[in-house]
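In this supplementary section we document a worked example of the pipeline. Step one takes a protein sequence of length 124 as its only input; no multiple sequence alignment statistics are reported here. Step two produces a three-dimensional model, which step three serialises into structure tokens for compact storage. The input and output of this example are shown verbatim.
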Amino acid sequence: QVQLVESGGGLVQAGGSLRLACAAFGRTFSSYAMGWFRQAPGKEREFVAYISWSGGITYYQDSVKGRFTISRDNAKNTVFLQMNSLKPEDTAVYYCAAGQVYSGYQFARQYDYWGQGTQVTVSS
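The serialised model returned by step three reads:
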């Protein structure tokens, strides 16, 4: 079992930055790939970013490429999402997820554990 706790959300103006963190508790964090997803009101949950267990492989949704960076610190059992040049359309609840994911990283069903989410609101 893995417990995930997100932090770092908040209210920011368009063009600003936020850094989300997801702390993992329980089983060996470094054996899991990690993902960030988001869900805006009235919309389905969507993939944002993925990082492999080693941190050597990352993938991003096209709309966040060049603006968001996913990273992890296995010594601290934490994964991060650095979000720059934020836009109002980035407003959503952001969730981190963990799983033994080797393919289909963009699909939520591939992940076994989820955090409770953190709200990100970008004002125009």
